Amino acid sequence: MQKRVGSILIFIFIQIGFQLSLDTILFPTLLNNILFNKSFPLNYDGRNNEIVLIKCPSEKFKYANIENLFIPSIMPSNVIKITANKLEKVVWYGVFHNNKSELYSIINCGIIKINYLHLNITTNWLVKINWDISNNKTTSVIPFDTTTLPTNACNTTINKTIIYKTYNGILKDKPYNISESYKNQLVYVFILNDNNTIDEILFPCQIYKPVYYKPNITLIGIIPSKVVNNIFIVTKEYENKAYFPILTSTSEKPYFYINEKINVSEVEYTMNDDYKENSNKIVNDTINLHGYGIFKFTYYCDDCINKNDTVTIKKIFFGPNKDNIILKNESIVVNKDKNLKFQANCGINTYTFAYLEKVSFNSKTIYMKNISQYLTLNDNEFLLDSSKIYLNISYPNGIFKCHYKTPTYTILEIDEFLLKSDIIPKKNFTIEVNKTQEINVNKPSKNKTKILKLNLKKQKFKTIPFFPDLLIVILIFTILFIGIYTYNKKTLIFQFFYNIKMKRKHPNIHIWWNRYKTFSIYDSEDYISEEEYLNYEYQNFEKIKFNIGGETVQRPFPIKLPLKGTNFKNKLLKNLMAKKVTEKSFDREYIVSYYPFNEKYNEFWNMLYDENINVIISVTYNNKKTGKRNVIPYWLSKKNIYGNLKVERFNKKEIISQKIDLLQFNITKLNEITKTLTIIDIFNWEEYSILKCDIDIYEIYNEVIQIDDTSKILLHSQLAPYTTIVEPQLIINDIIKSYNIGYIDIISFNSITNSLTKYFFNKNILNDNDGYTIYKKNYEQYIENIKLKETSMNASLRPFLNFTNYLNLGKMNYILRQLENICNYDINTLKKVCSRFYEIQNNLQLSLKINYKNIPCLDGNCINFNSNYFVHGNILEYCTKNLKKRKIIMCQIPNKETKLDMINMIINYKVSTIVMLVNNEEIILNNLVNYLPNNINTVYFYGIYRIQKLNDSKESTSEISISTYSIQGNDEKSHIITYIQLKCWSNNEVIKNHNIILKLYNIILRNINENPVIFQCCGGIGKSGTLALIFYIIDNLNQFNSFDPLFYLNIIRQIRYLSIPGIDQFMLVLSVVYENFKNDIKKYNPELYDKFFKIRDIILNNGLQYL
């Protein structure tokens, strides 16, 4: 026995001797542990630094004088290879502590393979850096305001290495460039001495921090027109517009304040030119303004060169570009036999950017500064309360004006009262009895009548002899009058006969107009709800259930092309869901489609050429934050080459300012004829909003009919066609029916009717000037009222409320048919964007970590804290409307191979809350694991981790349980998490009671912070994706110009592939959103809430398709 022990000791000492004499001596930490394969990870203390240098082996590294193989790994983005190193055996890397919540980082230097005597090892060379997250830095920070780094002992050595991070997060180890400096940037100087071979980790010798003078505040692309009383004036239209405030410095340091935030507060303009500051918020890039406003932009520079001048303030008035702009103009008919329901008034605090200067009614004007004196000295024509001044006249007749004074101009609100009386007073008339006597008669009395008869008798003998002559004179005069009148009014006579002709030629239009003009525009909803406008038949549609990720859901309706019309053989047109809409009575052919994909532009232009499309009507949208298009136009510049096509624009003109352009192109194919294409470019559109959609369709039509060849017109939009093109352009019921978009809504109907009416009158098909004048005035008032109603909405809910107003059964059906089309990849693309998933799937051992092989995991935003671990999940990160950070991890429940990986993820990502959406029985049924203990004080052990259940919350119910757990590692620090489990959502069907999910949503809100929260289900896409989409929609309801559920779904699926695969899950999301904003919807229109749930019940209970 002693001999055997002695032999082992001799062998060990021989190995140590080899190590001391060879490359292993470069790593003392490794040398101290004889059992090589148990040495990793090598542990280093990073102290309180956010950047350190670590040493890794190179390809020339040798272990114990043997031929080993070392394969360096690809480093993550927070690691940079140091180019200044000259050692051949090792490589130095700079490691940045990117996630400040992480206690450590693990770096994989590469794979080392050793096969020598007793050693047969293949392992990852891992380095673990333990970070100290306290606020005190071990190295002092030296501020500098020069163009180069200050000179000191660290900065003068030739062995220095400088590492810094650019403003966009890129690590560099090049000589420091002052133009890349930014506020709070830290520049690290390391001394890299190649002769000192035993160092395994290096710390900064010195840290520098650039400082600068306070910045200016400017708006991108905006030059103020003037400055009034230290307020910069920016003129704008009343419509919504986005502005982008930025902090600017000199060209020497252009990015110095690029990531800094600006405080913005709204300023109230009051009488005597005073300014009162209101609410305050922090913005980073965008301010969206509907209407006018005064805003104070403030930046506090806590670390600037001049300590006495660190605050930048700029007040900007976004106001009208001319005086006396009318924001409201209403006409009210006053009947003396009816009580006037409306009492004209001027709000004293109506606008923050203007105060009420004066009020006028006809010629009488009162100034607010003298209001008290006026009301005591005069009658009660005006009344004043705490918030308004009223016109106190029972039957007003005239113009009532509110004059609001802004810092520059005056804006007006006008109410025009038209007094209408049923009793028309008779005019005075005079009868000549003789040359010396006149009788003025208003309402003749009996006495006056007797006198009149008497005088007429007395004059009888005088008038009879002259009667024949007088008759001849009157006859001649009448003939002359008729001749002159006929000559001057021949157009009128011609028009009379022309009207008779039009009535015979277009009897249907005249019958329609005579009927329609008798309706109030507000009553036309009943008009279009008649059976002839709802000419759809419903039939039961077989609901198809399928299982994915352990959940049974309802398959989306197939994308059903219309029964009418012709489908295309062109593959691209099929992909764009193109549909040819044509009727025998049409002079031209219409094609309705989606917008072309960026990567398909060459095919798209070839398709236009081959299909002989002459005209395109294109609708795109502007991004709310940037103010630019959300999509790149497929006409990139004046001249372009697309495959074998040369496309050249030869004309561009503006149809409607800031809304519609006309573009004309020549398309030339090699050795073939040149064709002409006209594009009507409608941009800056906002669907579901009259404020942004109220374009003049007739103007577009006029431009189209002036084009030489309009035989084929393509209509497409950036989003699904139902939101834009079909409704405004095609009113005919059969056409709407043929594209499966449902019956038309009231606002679209009135918009179309207005355009048609305008067309009929301009073409003289109709001629009823009085009727048209009344209709036109009523329509303008109708649109203005809608706009006023929109402006009165809560700004954060306006897009959503507009959506609820437009939604109907047809539109909902159309939306649901797009679900399978959103973020759908082919297999070749999937292998590129999910490369890590397929790499693990192809590894026999690692593939056991995958629950479902038909659910790939995207590389982007994946859980990636260590190459040895795998969690099938993705993290969704965004800021809420309240500027709170939200991090949601959508992932699968672990199996027995990944339960340790799950705990590692919880610790590394500092997860604060876990939401389990599957009950314990179904977890086991799907061969997954309950990785947390069920009973209080029960302890589970996974590797180095100790997990204990601490308590159950009193809020727990039979449906939702809430518990607290503690996780401890080697450091014995307790990581506390809240565990919320929804028990009543079966995997066999989607939960029907949406109020339970809303209750869950509110419980989660109370139990999360800015640390990540996990949404977990079997496949990580169904229930998890549904809950994530609910959070994302509610959190971002005011972040975009419009509410489009397909847009939000696309965001989630770009992060988590295949999320929300079922119709029933998607409808559950909308149900929870509607329920969450129930009070706001009912306040806007009580019918809209119930209307949605009727639509939901039809779709989920029966299924639906149009015949």
From TrEMBL:
Residues 514-716, 849-1076 form the Tyrosine-protein phosphatase domain. It comes from the Eukaryota. The keyword Membrane applies. This is Protein-tyrosine phosphatase, receptor/non-receptor type domain and Protein-tyrosine/Dual specificity phosphatase domain and Protein-tyrosine phosphatase, catalytic domain-containing protein. The chain crosses the membrane at residues 7-31, 466-487. SUPFAM superfamilies: (Phosphotyrosine protein) phosphatases II (SSF52799). Residues 994-1067 form the Tyrosine specific protein phosphatases domain. It comes from Strongyloides ratti (Parasitic roundworm). Pfam families: DUF7583 (PF24486), DUF7585 (PF24490), Y_phosphatase (PF00102). Keywords: Membrane, Receptor, Transmembrane, Transmembrane helix. One of its GO terms (molecular function) is protein tyrosine phosphatase activity. Signal peptide: none annotated. Gene3D superfamilies: Protein tyrosine phosphatase superfamily. InterPro entries: DUF7583 (IPR056005), DUF7585 (IPR056007), Oocyte-zygote_transition_reg (IPR052782), Prot-tyrosine_phosphatase-like (IPR029021), PTP_cat (IPR000242), Tyr_Pase_cat (IPR003595), Tyr_Pase_dom (IPR000387).
